[in-house]
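User: I'm putting together a small comparison set for a docking exercise, and I want a reference complex before I start. The sequence is below, and the ligand is heme C. Could you produce the 3D structure with the ligand included, as structure tokens?
Assistant: Of course. I'll restate your input first, then give the structure tokens for the complex.
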Amino acid sequence: MIARNRRVLALVSGIGGSVLLIALLLNIFERKVESRNPFYKVVEISDDIDDPAIWGKNFPHQYDGYMKTADMTRTKYGGSEALAHVPTDKDPRNMTSQQKTDEDPRLKTMWAGYAFAVDFREERGHAYMLEDQKYTERQNVVKQPGTCLNCHGSTYTLYKKLGNGDITKGFEEMNKIPYKEVVQQVKHPVSCIDCHDATSMSLRITRPAFIEGIRAYKASQGISEYDVNKMATRQEMRTFVCGQCHVEYYFKGDTKRLTYPWSKGLQSR
Ligand code: HEC
Ligand code: HEC
Ligand code: HEC
């Protein structure tokens, strides 16, 4: 009886193993086919769709990668770590990252009188950019302008809406509106449409502040009328799309125009 049970067990696990192996081979095969056919057009994407989940229907692998920015584990390179946060009316996040002003209290002294002294956390992945900006205490000690939103949300369709199709005009309008008001009009963190052309999928720059900053920089190098979307190389674009936000900046004058100070070159001296 026992011997027979063992035989049955061996048979069952043998079948189980084969099923797993076949599943693995099928999966490898599918991935190989997918990589030969860069994409299947499941949905039509237009220049007005900011929802990454819709783009993700055509590009599931890239969408998976995009969603992974929600991961929160510190690696050997540093990065953020998930800290439980009890949601309140004012701050409904159930997870945040380390408070840097607690880790190094000297920052509070150094920045006294400056919004950063009250709240400056470890930065997190793209999935959190919009909520972290909405709920930072820095929104409550200073009345922030719409300018903040340029680097924390999918603003391309909003620029078009506010500027009647002209993104620079929309950018100027957005900067002037109080943050707490204008943020209501944005639904997603940086999305596919902010870096990709909806028809060709090629990279593009959608941030007027970058277009203007890089034009001023090129002018300082003797290149006039630089148009980043026409003149940059593919290799440069791979860096420039990130440089739309990961750069030093200031808000200029009463209109709070987001400005990248590169007209005198890229060095601080
Ligand atoms: C629309 C603006 C924007 C663009 C474009 C952008 N980023 Fe970011 N990125 C952010 C913001 C804002 C954060 C911080 C989010 C937070 O802390 O909630 C961030 C966070 C990150 C982080 C995580 C940092 C950490 O310590 O966990 C990495 C890595 C990163 N970005 C890389 C890139 C790369 C690479 C590109 C280009 C392919 C890029 N970003 C393009 C705005 C942007
Ligand atoms: C030019 C683009 C840009 C603008 C404009 C901008 N941010 Fe950010 N912000 C970033 C980037 C990039 C990061 C990720 C930080 C890093 O990697 O240094 C970030 C990180 C953050 C974070 C997460 C870390 C922290 O400091 O706690 C908050 C909150 C934040 N920004 C709030 C704001 C507010 C409020 C404004 C407006 C006053 C603003 N941001 C304007 C690009 C920008
Ligand atoms: C912050 C900018 C940025 C965002 C946001 C972004 N991408 Fe990309 N994407 C890139 C860059 C950079 C490349 C590499 C382009 C190159 O090789 O020239 C790329 C490449 C691609 C490619 C080409 C194949 C590949 O993997 O290299 C596809 C398809 C793609 N992205 C889809 C998406 C989708 C779908 C989304 C939204 C879920 C998205 N991307 C969001 C910057 C971005």
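The pocket of heme C (ligand 3) is lined by residues 52, 55-56, 59, 62-63, 66, 190-192, 194-196, 201, 203, 234, 238, 241-242 (CB under 6 Å). The CA atoms of residues 195 and 204 lie 5 Å apart.
User: Thanks, that's exactly what I needed.
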